[in-house]
Amino acid sequence: MDTELLKTFLEVGHTRHFGKAAENLYLTPSAVSFRIKQLEGLLGVALFSRHRNNIQITPAGERMRPYAEAMLNAWERAQQDIALSENNTMQLSIGAAPNLWDSFLQPYINQVHSSLPSLALRADVISPQLMSRQLLERSLDIAVLFDPPKVDDIKRELLQQVELVMVTSDRDRPPLVENIEKYIKLDWGTAFNMQHAREFAGLPQPVLHTSSVRIGLDFILQNGGAAFLPQALVQPYIETGDLVAITDAISLERSVYAAYLPDSDHLEQIQQVIRFFQAQ
Q1: What is the DSSP letter of 229?
Q2: What is the CB neighbour count within 10 angstroms for residue 191?
Q3: DSSP 91-134
Q4: Rounded to the nearest 10 degrees, how much is the dihedral formed by the CA atoms of 69, 73, 75, 77?
Q5: pTM of the model
Q6: Are residues 204 and 198 in contact, defined by beta-carbon separation less than 8 angstroms?
Q7: Which CATH number fits domain 76-159+257-279: 3.40.50.10330, 3.40.190.10, 3.40.50.150, 3.40.50.1820?
Q8: Which range, 98-102, 121-125, 160-164, has the best average confidence (pLDDT)?
Q9: Residue 135 belongs to what H/E stretch?
Q10: Which CATH architecture has domain 3-71?
């Protein structure tokens, strides 16, 4: 199948507009429309419903979306692996949610590269819901996440513990939970949400809910508020006085796991990277 058809389908699905998709793909709207008709003809179903300027993806289109993403990922991975093989270089793909890149993984990428210079790395931001599928499809080598999938074919290993502390930028009031007026909710996974609901039911409704540590931290520094953030990340801000720890809030810990396929062709390299993360 022509991968350009899949790219066009995903772009129209994202923009819900043929003209905007055409601009993003550097095509004419008629070319975009023609590609969608081609793909619909190949599949024998309508992928979008068209009512004047209102473009809606059909149930068949929704079912097609993950397959299109998987096929494009696999094709891109194949191209990269083949190109790398000419130089005897192996590529390893690491995926994690935004908050784990910000709070845990990002500082280690340069160190992994320095320690394993012959290994080409691919670092992707992936939602936890997609990781199991991409692991099983072998378009992802290592998934780093808080709540690893419980699938027989997928092995998981504990990497580290991340300590989350509640901090605030409000220095005019005692740093107590009862004094929090503006709360920012970070997405730290299912287990965190359950404990958070038990221990902090009295917190105000979040003014911002995000899966990005950097977005949450920047919001607090610019607009004030409080949030649970990684101790290692906020310590420099505590030392400079930009943030203050909420003294009566317990810290919450999250376990970080690596998930991978034990029969992977890249198993030796996967285990090398995992040992590196565990040793830090």
Answers
A1: E
A2: 14
A3: EEEEEE-HHHIIIIIHHHHHHHHHH-TTEEEEEEE--HHHHHHH
A4: 180
A5: 0.67
A6: no
A7: 3.40.190.10
A8: 160-164
A9: helix 128-136
A10: Orthogonal Bundle (1.10)
